[in-house]
Amino acid sequence: MVQKAKILLVDDRPENLLALEAILSALDQTLVRASSGEEALKALLTDDFAVILLDVQMPGMDGFETAAHIKRRERTRDIPIIFLTAINHGPHHTFRGYAAGAVDYISKPFDPWVLRAKVSVFVELYMKNCQLREQAALLRLQLEGDGKDAGEQKESAGLLAELSARLAAVEEQAEALSKQLSDESTDAAAVATAAHLERKLTGLRRALDALEPGTGGASPLPSRN
Question: What residue stretches are annotated with the Response regulatory domain (predicted)?
Fold first, then answer.
């Protein structure tokens, strides 16, 4: 059974968390609540998340400060963050969100379908990365040691080809998403989202290329999504 991705929802208002759960329940993933920045950071200590939906206006540690802590941690700095805000102070306020490491910045009230679609992109990418890492680990085991017979070598080559094909499919999806974003909008959200996907896929492709025979052995794929 494929393990579900975890999505972290951070908001100090219970009714907002309930609304987010209602919107994202159709994705059939694991939704984790956090009612403060401190609670979110505690959840991130033990669990891996595909994406974080983070409210900007919270008492105590606000969304910007919470994001700064997330980006300082090696374990969590690559997790995509989507900021949600009920206010709009103009481009400077929005820029602060992107400077804090957000891949998107959405003002309330937002279109539920749009939010669900944006989140689903990062969930899909996370799940694909998990599958690639699992297959890469299996491939590394098959590539280790000397004296493999012809059948084992053929099996390893076949698995490597399948792994490369899966990554190519993700790259194709990311390219289509990037084109869609550029066609629909030229704002910083589109640029940030496309750049994030490109960085992750470039790292995966580089790691996969290192598994090819004659490149010096099997290098591990990135541990984060």
Answer: 6-123
